[in-house]
Amino acid sequence: PENAAGLLRSCLPDDIASQVDWMSLQLTNASHVDPSAEWRHSDLVFTTRIHGRDAVIYVLLEHQSSPDPLMALRMLTYVTRIWESYLRDNPAASRIPAVLPVVVYSGSTRWQAPTRVLDLVDLEDGAKPSFAPYLPNLSFVLDDLAAQGEDQLRRRPLPTAAMLSALSLLAFPHRE
Questions:
Q1: What is the per-residue pLDDT across 35-93, written as a single tens digit (0 to 9) for each?
Q2: Whose CA, among 39, 78, 118, 150, lies 20 to 30 Å from 133?
Q3: What is the pTM of this model?
Q4: Please, are residues 70 and 111 in contact by the beta-carbon 8 Å criterion?
Q5: Spatial contact of 62 and 68, defined as CB atoms under 8 Å apart
Q6: Within a 13 Å sphere around the CA of 48, how many CA atoms are in the beta-carbon half?
Q7: Are 75 and 138 spatial neighbours (Cβ–Cβ below 8 Å)?
Q8: pLDDT tens for residues 123-160?
Q9: Measured between alpha carbons, how far is 17 from 14 in angstroms, rounded to an integer?
Q10: Burial of 134 (C-beta count, 10 Å sphere; 0-12/13-18/19+)
Q11: CB within 8 A of 156, min separation 6: which ones?
Q12: Count of CB atoms within 10 A of residue 83's CB?
């Protein structure tokens, strides 16, 4: 959790990172990646507290040389699975915890795919405002290591183990 907290603090927007109770961050043993996609994705599910309420930070490590054009939809699926699991474990619940989806991408090219589900919906741009309230619009936080380079990563305030992991992902991106 300490290494994850350092990595997440460095990639989350400041207004979100400042609200997370980093001392309560705990790694769970859950995984929500489809077995058929395990060769190109691995995930980490952390529970935490935000203003005294349960929350989840879902981190997907993208092990492909190029971005998945449907990643936003995949993340929506994983977030939904987290909520379904929560409701199975808490059958009396009438609310669900916040789930913050994060993709850490270490491919050989910069990320170019949409990071919002709404951007995947095939509508004219002029029609989207009318339909937007009725369509899913999940966005995910993208930590694009390919866009940052070694110097930027070295300037991140990370624990040593997290720094070594990030630099190794950058130095040895997965090649399909």
A1: 665 545 578 899 999 999 999 999 988 777 788 899 999 999 999 999 999 999 999 99
A2: 78
A3: 0.81
A4: no
A5: yes
A6: 25
A7: yes
A8: 998 999 999 999 999 999 999 887 876 676 667 665 55
A9: 5
A10: exposed
A11: 6, 10, 163, 166
A12: 15
Class of residue 23 by CB neighbours under 10 A (exposed 0-12, middle 13-18, buried 19+): exposed
Beta strands in 19-64 (DSSP E): 26-27, 41-50, 53-62
Task: Read off the tokens for 47.
Answer: 């529970």
DSSP letters, 89-122, are: H-TT-SS--EEEEEEEE--SS---S-SBGGGGS-
**pLDDT value at position 41?**
57
Residue 97: partners with Cβ closer than 8 Å, 6 or more residues away? 53, 54, 55, 56, 83, 86
54 and 64 Cβ atoms separated by less than 8 Å: no
Place of tokens 């092990």: 63
Instruction: Check the CA dihedral 159-161-166-168 and report its sign.
Output: positive
Amino acid identity, residue 114? P
